[in-house]
Design brief:
Elements (H helix, E strand, L loop, with lengths): L1 E5 L1 H7 L11 H10 L3 E9 L2 E13 L2 E6 L12 E2 L6 H18 L7 E6 L8 H5 L3 E11 L5 H7 L2 H10 L4 E6 L1 H17 L8 H11 L3 E8 L4 E9 L3 E7 L4 E2 L2 E2 H15 L8 E3 L6 H7 L5 E9 L3 H14 L1
Parallel strand pairs: 4-6, 11-14
Antiparallel strand pairs: 1-2, 2-3, 3-4, 3-5, 6-15, 7-14, 7-15, 8-9, 9-10, 10-11, 12-13
Helix pairs in contact: 2-8, 6-9, 7-8
GO molecular function, one term: transferase activity
Pfam families: Acetyltransf_6
Protein name: Acetyltransferase (GNAT) domain-containing protein
Length: 334
Protein backbone atom coordinates (compact mmCIF):
# COMPACT_ATOMS: atom_id res chain seq x y z
CA UNK A 1 0.00 0.00 0.00
CA UNK A 2 1.14 3.54 -0.82
CA UNK A 3 0.14 6.24 1.69
CA UNK A 4 0.57 9.89 0.77
CA UNK A 5 -0.71 13.33 1.64
CA UNK A 6 -3.31 14.82 -0.69
CA UNK A 7 -4.48 18.32 -1.49
CA UNK A 8 -8.20 19.12 -1.40
CA UNK A 9 -8.66 18.51 -5.10
CA UNK A 10 -6.98 15.11 -4.94
CA UNK A 11 -8.98 14.30 -1.81
CA UNK A 12 -12.23 15.07 -3.62
CA UNK A 13 -11.23 12.81 -6.51
CA UNK A 14 -10.42 9.97 -4.10
CA UNK A 15 -13.73 10.05 -2.21
CA UNK A 16 -16.03 7.06 -2.81
CA UNK A 17 -19.33 7.48 -4.64
CA UNK A 18 -21.37 6.80 -1.51
CA UNK A 19 -21.12 6.84 2.26
CA UNK A 20 -19.38 10.22 2.51
CA UNK A 21 -19.88 12.19 5.74
CA UNK A 22 -20.45 15.92 5.34
CA UNK A 23 -17.22 16.75 7.19
CA UNK A 24 -15.31 14.45 4.84
CA UNK A 25 -16.23 16.62 1.84
CA UNK A 26 -13.64 19.01 0.39
CA UNK A 27 -16.03 21.92 0.96
CA UNK A 28 -16.38 21.32 4.72
CA UNK A 29 -12.68 20.51 5.13
CA UNK A 30 -11.77 23.75 3.35
CA UNK A 31 -13.83 25.74 5.88
CA UNK A 32 -12.19 23.91 8.79
CA UNK A 33 -8.78 24.61 7.29
CA UNK A 34 -9.66 28.30 7.10
CA UNK A 35 -10.95 28.64 10.66
CA UNK A 36 -9.08 26.06 12.75
CA UNK A 37 -5.53 26.45 14.00
CA UNK A 38 -3.07 23.89 12.70
CA UNK A 39 -2.02 21.97 9.63
CA UNK A 40 -4.76 20.09 7.77
CA UNK A 41 -3.31 16.77 6.61
CA UNK A 42 -5.31 14.66 4.20
CA UNK A 43 -3.93 11.12 4.02
CA UNK A 44 -4.78 8.77 1.19
CA UNK A 45 -3.94 5.09 0.96
CA UNK A 46 -3.73 3.56 -2.50
CA UNK A 47 -3.46 0.13 -4.02
CA UNK A 48 -2.07 1.00 -7.42
CA UNK A 49 -4.23 3.95 -8.48
CA UNK A 50 -7.25 2.77 -6.46
CA UNK A 51 -7.91 4.67 -3.20
CA UNK A 52 -8.48 2.24 -0.32
CA UNK A 53 -8.20 4.57 2.68
CA UNK A 54 -8.70 8.24 3.55
CA UNK A 55 -7.99 9.99 6.85
CA UNK A 56 -8.31 13.77 7.50
CA UNK A 57 -6.33 15.08 10.48
CA UNK A 58 -5.57 18.47 11.94
CA UNK A 59 -2.09 18.67 13.47
CA UNK A 60 -1.47 21.44 16.00
CA UNK A 61 2.08 22.03 17.25
CA UNK A 62 2.34 23.57 20.72
CA UNK A 63 5.14 24.25 23.15
CA UNK A 64 3.88 21.33 25.20
CA UNK A 65 3.87 18.95 22.22
CA UNK A 66 1.61 18.12 19.27
CA UNK A 67 -2.10 17.42 19.05
CA UNK A 68 -3.34 15.23 16.20
CA UNK A 69 -7.09 15.57 15.93
CA UNK A 70 -9.90 14.24 13.75
CA UNK A 71 -12.05 16.24 14.22
CA UNK A 72 -10.61 19.37 15.87
CA UNK A 73 -12.59 20.32 18.99
CA UNK A 74 -14.61 23.50 19.21
CA UNK A 75 -16.05 23.46 15.67
CA UNK A 76 -19.20 21.43 16.13
CA UNK A 77 -17.86 18.49 14.13
CA UNK A 78 -19.49 15.43 15.69
CA UNK A 79 -17.40 12.79 13.91
CA UNK A 80 -14.68 12.53 11.30
CA UNK A 81 -11.98 9.85 11.47
CA UNK A 82 -10.85 7.44 8.75
CA UNK A 83 -12.63 5.94 5.78
CA UNK A 84 -11.47 2.53 4.57
CA UNK A 85 -12.60 1.24 1.17
CA UNK A 86 -10.98 -2.18 0.48
CA UNK A 87 -11.25 -3.51 -3.05
CA UNK A 88 -12.01 -7.03 -1.81
CA UNK A 89 -15.09 -8.14 0.18
CA UNK A 90 -13.05 -10.83 1.98
CA UNK A 91 -12.71 -10.14 5.70
CA UNK A 92 -9.03 -11.07 5.81
CA UNK A 93 -8.15 -8.59 3.09
CA UNK A 94 -10.35 -5.87 4.60
CA UNK A 95 -8.53 -6.26 7.91
CA UNK A 96 -5.17 -6.17 6.15
CA UNK A 97 -5.99 -2.90 4.36
CA UNK A 98 -7.44 -1.31 7.49
CA UNK A 99 -4.45 -2.25 9.66
CA UNK A 100 -1.81 -1.23 7.14
CA UNK A 101 -3.45 2.12 6.41
CA UNK A 102 -4.07 3.14 10.03
CA UNK A 103 -0.58 2.06 11.13
CA UNK A 104 1.04 4.05 8.32
CA UNK A 105 -0.88 7.23 9.18
CA UNK A 106 -0.21 6.89 12.92
CA UNK A 107 3.49 6.42 12.24
CA UNK A 108 3.63 9.51 10.03
CA UNK A 109 2.03 11.74 12.69
CA UNK A 110 4.31 10.37 15.40
CA UNK A 111 1.66 8.92 17.65
CA UNK A 112 4.30 6.97 19.60
CA UNK A 113 5.90 10.21 20.79
CA UNK A 114 5.13 10.79 24.47
CA UNK A 115 4.35 14.45 23.68
CA UNK A 116 1.83 13.67 20.92
CA UNK A 117 -1.84 13.81 21.87
CA UNK A 118 -4.04 11.85 19.44
CA UNK A 119 -7.83 11.75 19.25
CA UNK A 120 -10.15 10.53 16.51
CA UNK A 121 -13.94 10.30 16.64
CA UNK A 122 -14.87 7.85 13.90
CA UNK A 123 -18.05 7.64 11.86
CA UNK A 124 -20.40 4.68 12.43
CA UNK A 125 -19.35 3.32 9.02
CA UNK A 126 -15.85 2.75 10.38
CA UNK A 127 -16.63 -0.44 12.28
CA UNK A 128 -13.21 -1.96 13.04
CA UNK A 129 -11.13 0.23 15.39
CA UNK A 130 -8.77 -2.57 16.44
CA UNK A 131 -5.72 -1.09 14.63
CA UNK A 132 -5.92 1.86 17.04
CA UNK A 133 -5.92 -0.53 20.01
CA UNK A 134 -2.98 -2.44 18.54
CA UNK A 135 -1.12 0.87 18.42
CA UNK A 136 -1.78 1.20 22.18
CA UNK A 137 -4.43 3.88 21.88
CA UNK A 138 -7.54 3.73 24.02
CA UNK A 139 -10.77 2.90 22.18
CA UNK A 140 -14.19 3.73 23.62
CA UNK A 141 -17.63 2.97 22.22
CA UNK A 142 -20.15 5.79 21.91
CA UNK A 143 -23.68 5.79 20.53
CA UNK A 144 -26.08 7.79 18.43
CA UNK A 145 -29.72 7.37 17.42
CA UNK A 146 -30.38 6.83 13.69
CA UNK A 147 -33.92 6.70 12.34
CA UNK A 148 -34.12 4.53 9.21
CA UNK A 149 -36.58 6.12 6.77
CA UNK A 150 -35.90 4.05 3.66
CA UNK A 151 -39.13 2.84 2.03
CA UNK A 152 -41.20 4.33 4.85
CA UNK A 153 -44.29 6.52 4.67
CA UNK A 154 -44.81 9.45 7.01
CA UNK A 155 -47.82 7.67 8.51
CA UNK A 156 -45.78 4.56 9.27
CA UNK A 157 -42.98 6.59 10.86
CA UNK A 158 -45.38 8.64 12.97
CA UNK A 159 -46.99 5.42 14.21
CA UNK A 160 -43.57 4.20 15.41
CA UNK A 161 -43.14 7.24 17.71
CA UNK A 162 -44.06 7.18 21.37
CA UNK A 163 -47.63 8.09 22.26
CA UNK A 164 -46.61 11.40 23.84
CA UNK A 165 -44.54 12.42 20.80
CA UNK A 166 -47.39 11.61 18.41
CA UNK A 167 -49.72 13.71 20.53
CA UNK A 168 -47.31 16.67 20.49
CA UNK A 169 -47.00 16.56 16.72
CA UNK A 170 -50.76 16.33 16.18
CA UNK A 171 -51.40 19.14 18.66
CA UNK A 172 -48.83 21.23 16.83
CA UNK A 173 -50.77 20.94 13.59
CA UNK A 174 -53.54 22.96 15.21
CA UNK A 175 -51.30 25.88 16.23
CA UNK A 176 -50.50 29.13 14.41
CA UNK A 177 -46.95 27.95 13.70
CA UNK A 178 -45.26 27.88 10.34
CA UNK A 179 -42.09 25.83 9.79
CA UNK A 180 -40.16 26.80 6.69
CA UNK A 181 -36.74 26.29 5.18
CA UNK A 182 -34.68 29.48 5.24
CA UNK A 183 -31.24 30.55 4.04
CA UNK A 184 -28.35 32.27 5.81
CA UNK A 185 -30.65 34.69 7.64
CA UNK A 186 -32.40 31.70 9.19
CA UNK A 187 -29.05 30.11 10.02
CA UNK A 188 -28.06 33.33 11.81
CA UNK A 189 -31.27 33.25 13.86
CA UNK A 190 -30.64 29.62 14.85
CA UNK A 191 -27.04 30.45 15.73
CA UNK A 192 -27.96 33.43 17.93
CA UNK A 193 -30.72 31.47 19.66
CA UNK A 194 -28.30 28.63 20.42
CA UNK A 195 -25.68 31.05 21.70
CA UNK A 196 -28.18 32.65 24.08
CA UNK A 197 -29.16 29.23 25.40
CA UNK A 198 -25.51 28.45 26.20
CA UNK A 199 -25.15 31.79 27.99
CA UNK A 200 -28.25 31.07 30.08
CA UNK A 201 -26.55 27.87 31.24
CA UNK A 202 -23.27 29.71 31.99
CA UNK A 203 -21.54 27.83 29.19
CA UNK A 204 -19.21 29.15 26.51
CA UNK A 205 -20.51 28.73 22.99
CA UNK A 206 -17.43 27.79 20.94
CA UNK A 207 -18.62 28.52 17.41
CA UNK A 208 -18.24 31.87 15.68
CA UNK A 209 -20.93 33.11 13.31
CA UNK A 210 -18.30 33.52 10.59
CA UNK A 211 -17.46 29.81 10.78
CA UNK A 212 -21.13 28.73 10.78
CA UNK A 213 -21.91 31.07 7.89
CA UNK A 214 -18.98 29.84 5.81
CA UNK A 215 -19.80 26.19 6.47
CA UNK A 216 -23.50 26.45 5.61
CA UNK A 217 -22.64 28.40 2.47
CA UNK A 218 -19.83 26.07 1.38
CA UNK A 219 -21.64 22.74 1.71
CA UNK A 220 -24.60 24.16 -0.25
CA UNK A 221 -27.25 21.46 -0.75
CA UNK A 222 -25.76 19.47 2.12
CA UNK A 223 -27.34 21.91 4.58
CA UNK A 224 -30.88 23.06 5.29
CA UNK A 225 -32.15 25.48 7.93
CA UNK A 226 -35.59 24.89 9.44
CA UNK A 227 -37.20 27.77 11.33
CA UNK A 228 -40.44 27.86 13.31
CA UNK A 229 -42.26 31.18 13.47
CA UNK A 230 -45.64 32.39 14.63
CA UNK A 231 -48.15 33.64 12.06
CA UNK A 232 -46.86 37.20 12.61
CA UNK A 233 -43.25 36.14 11.90
CA UNK A 234 -41.91 35.90 15.46
CA UNK A 235 -38.98 33.46 15.75
CA UNK A 236 -39.69 30.53 18.06
CA UNK A 237 -36.90 28.04 17.38
CA UNK A 238 -34.95 26.45 14.59
CA UNK A 239 -32.39 23.83 13.65
CA UNK A 240 -29.64 23.59 11.09
CA UNK A 241 -29.40 20.18 9.42
CA UNK A 242 -26.36 18.84 7.58
CA UNK A 243 -26.41 15.95 5.12
CA UNK A 244 -24.01 13.12 4.42
CA UNK A 245 -24.56 10.94 1.36
CA UNK A 246 -26.90 8.75 3.40
CA UNK A 247 -28.29 10.70 6.34
CA UNK A 248 -29.57 13.98 7.65
CA UNK A 249 -27.79 15.17 10.81
CA UNK A 250 -29.28 17.35 13.53
CA UNK A 251 -26.37 19.78 13.80
CA UNK A 252 -27.28 23.02 15.56
CA UNK A 253 -30.21 24.66 17.34
CA UNK A 254 -33.23 23.01 18.84
CA UNK A 255 -33.06 25.06 22.02
CA UNK A 256 -35.88 24.24 24.36
CA UNK A 257 -38.98 26.18 23.33
CA UNK A 258 -42.69 25.62 23.76
CA UNK A 259 -45.65 27.37 22.25
CA UNK A 260 -49.04 26.85 23.89
CA UNK A 261 -47.56 23.87 25.77
CA UNK A 262 -46.33 22.15 22.59
CA UNK A 263 -42.62 21.40 22.03
CA UNK A 264 -41.40 23.34 19.01
CA UNK A 265 -38.42 21.00 18.72
CA UNK A 266 -40.65 18.00 18.12
CA UNK A 267 -42.37 19.85 15.29
CA UNK A 268 -39.02 20.84 13.78
CA UNK A 269 -37.68 17.29 13.90
CA UNK A 270 -40.89 16.00 12.38
CA UNK A 271 -40.62 18.44 9.46
CA UNK A 272 -37.03 17.30 8.81
CA UNK A 273 -38.18 13.68 8.83
CA UNK A 274 -41.04 14.46 6.45
CA UNK A 275 -38.61 16.09 4.04
CA UNK A 276 -36.16 13.17 4.17
CA UNK A 277 -39.05 10.92 3.12
CA UNK A 278 -40.71 13.21 0.57
CA UNK A 279 -38.16 15.85 -0.50
CA UNK A 280 -34.54 14.94 0.38
CA UNK A 281 -31.68 17.08 -0.92
CA UNK A 282 -30.20 13.92 -2.46
CA UNK A 283 -32.05 10.71 -3.33
CA UNK A 284 -29.48 8.69 -1.36
CA UNK A 285 -30.47 10.35 1.96
CA UNK A 286 -32.70 7.83 3.73
CA UNK A 287 -32.13 8.28 7.47
CA UNK A 288 -32.06 10.90 10.22
CA UNK A 289 -29.25 10.95 12.77
CA UNK A 290 -30.41 12.61 16.00
CA UNK A 291 -26.74 13.13 16.90
CA UNK A 292 -25.81 11.52 20.14
CA UNK A 293 -27.19 8.98 22.56
CA UNK A 294 -24.65 9.37 25.34
CA UNK A 295 -26.41 11.70 27.78
CA UNK A 296 -29.15 10.07 29.83
CA UNK A 297 -31.29 13.21 30.11
CA UNK A 298 -31.30 13.76 26.33
CA UNK A 299 -31.84 10.07 25.60
CA UNK A 300 -35.16 10.14 27.40
CA UNK A 301 -36.41 12.53 24.72
CA UNK A 302 -34.61 11.16 21.65
CA UNK A 303 -35.69 7.58 22.35
CA UNK A 304 -39.30 8.66 21.68
CA UNK A 305 -38.53 8.66 17.94
CA UNK A 306 -38.05 4.88 17.88
CA UNK A 307 -34.64 5.19 16.21
CA UNK A 308 -31.96 2.51 16.18
CA UNK A 309 -29.07 2.73 18.62
CA UNK A 310 -25.90 2.85 16.49
CA UNK A 311 -22.34 2.59 17.87
CA UNK A 312 -19.28 4.54 16.82
CA UNK A 313 -15.74 4.62 18.19
CA UNK A 314 -13.39 7.14 19.78
CA UNK A 315 -9.66 6.40 19.67
CA UNK A 316 -7.31 8.51 21.78
CA UNK A 317 -4.04 8.64 23.66
CA UNK A 318 -4.23 7.17 27.15
CA UNK A 319 -2.27 6.92 30.38
CA UNK A 320 -1.67 9.14 33.40
CA UNK A 321 0.95 11.24 31.63
CA UNK A 322 -1.37 11.83 28.68
CA UNK A 323 -4.21 12.91 31.00
CA UNK A 324 -1.91 15.67 32.25
CA UNK A 325 -1.07 16.58 28.65
CA UNK A 326 -4.78 16.80 27.78
CA UNK A 327 -5.43 19.21 30.64
CA UNK A 328 -2.43 21.31 29.66
CA UNK A 329 -3.51 21.35 26.05
CA UNK A 330 -7.00 22.52 26.97
CA UNK A 331 -5.49 25.37 29.01
CA UNK A 332 -3.25 26.45 26.12
CA UNK A 333 -6.15 26.20 23.67
CA UNK A 334 -8.42 28.58 25.58
Amino acid sequence: MRVERLDLSEWGDALPNSGVEVFHTPEALSVLDEHATGDLRLYGGFKGQQPVGLFPLLVQDRSIGSAVLSPPPGFGVPRMGPMVMPTSPKQRKREKVNTAFIEAVLEDVGVDDSLTLFRSICSPDYDDPRPFSWSELGVATKFTYVLDLANESTDDVLTSFSKSLRREIRDGEELDIEITREGLDGARSVYEDTKVRYQEQDKTFPLSWEYVRDLVDAVDERSRVYVARTSDGRFLSGITVLYSDDAAFFWQGGTRATHENVSINSLLHWRVIEDVIEDPPMASVTSYDLMGANTERLCRYKSKFGADLVPYYVAESQGTGMDVAKRAYRMVSR
